[in-house]
Write a structure and sequence with these properties.
Length: 115
Amino acid sequence: MEFNKNHLTVYSNLPQADYEGWLSKQESTKFLKKWFSLKGNILFYFQKSSDKEPLGIIILEGCSIATGLSFDCASYEIGGHIIKVDRFGNVNRATPFEDIERKELNNRESNNTEC
């Protein structure tokens, strides 16, 4: 299936995102805050939460997630993109990446079971 820019823009603006919120995305040598919206296996990012057209997308299908933790945040490398999740908010709230990791692990475990 093929998508063009218009298809993705329309999809990014549909209601009912799986997760939405501010994350920091590495741009060159520094991290910049972006508004992220996860819909299915597509992670959209915007300059502001009110923007209608995404700055970019990260397709999560086939990506592996590498995690790193520091005192104040968790960082994830997804398909060559580095994303930071602020830990000062609700520390007990699972991030979308933790949910994706859990699903990925469950899929691997279910595929390794013998019948």
